[in-house]
Specification:
Elements lengths: L2 H28 L5 H28 L8 H7 L11 H29 L2 H25 L1
């Protein structure tokens, strides 16, 4: 993969991770129903974990000498996460967040391989950690949905 394509891939993953954070926060803020408290806490745990790495991820992008996307138009256009503006049931929110988290784990895994090929070992370690974090989020969501 050429360097420009690689940088666009990393920027797209950053945007996807940021959009995932926003979706989890949205679900945390807007969940309702008899399972409100359980979903409210689960979504909070997820969005706080992701939010905690956004700045580090932005700095990883900058370390590659690329611009970090920071406007809503660019974030949405480069993201693989589909926004969910409607309020759904807690179960539907968890199912959607699970699908997104599984996708993020897969994307981070593919990006890890490319970062290794590019010789960006520090970034590849970061990407591997993100893959692991999304696998854990997916496990918690999947277990909640049973």
């Amino acid at each position: 993969m050429d360097r420009d394509t690689y940088l666009q891939l990393i920027r797209s993953i950053f945007c996807s991770e940021f959009a995932f954070y926003l979706k989890a926060a949205n679900f945390h803020w807007n969940v309702e129903g008899s399972d409100f408290y359980e979903f409210h806490l689960l979504f909070e745990r997820i969005y706080l974990e992701v939010y905690g790495i956004v700045d580090d991820f932005a700095e990883e992008v900058r370390a590659l000498r690329a611009q970090t996307p920071a406007d809503l138009v660019t974030l949405q256009s480069l993201s693989k996460i589909t926004p969910q503006p409607e309020v759904m049931s807690g179960m539907s929110m968890a199912q959607e967040l699970l699908a997104d988290s599984d996708m993020m784990a897969e994307i981070f895994g593919m990006a890890f391989v490319e970062a290794e090929a590019q010789g960006d070992h520090g970034l590849s370690n970061f990407l591997a950690d993100r893959q692991d974090a999304h696998r854990k989020h997916s496990w918690m969501l999947r277990s909640t949905l049973k």
